[in-house]
Amino acid sequence: MKILLDTHILIWTLFESNSLKIKERELLLNPKYEILVSSVSLWEISLKYQLGKLQLENIHPDQLPEEINKMGFNTIDLNISDASTYYKLPKLKHADPFDRMLVWQAIQNKCSLFSKDKAIKQYKNCGLTILSV
Hints:
By secondary structure, the chain is α/β, with parallel strands linked by helices. It is 41% helix and 13% strand.
């Protein structure tokens, strides 16, 4: 099973692991799951860091790929197909463009999205699978 991490889950995994339940942390370390981090999340983190809306502990955003690799996670780029077909995702009440693109990437790449964002549940009718632990 492939699991795409929402940006806040990535941040919690790297910096605030107590924000995750024990079963969630165990799942992230289980080698039978392919854990994916989107370049969209790294872009979001970098942007929020630059704007001063996000603080990182003793690390800069450009060091995150190495940290992701150390965790044994894989990365997924925003590819041309995902970008050009994004218009097909219905615009529901959730307006955050980063979250919406992660939803679309999860749908297109047949991943379960690991997110605690309750607003994302509205995309289940669009083919989104949300990880529930």
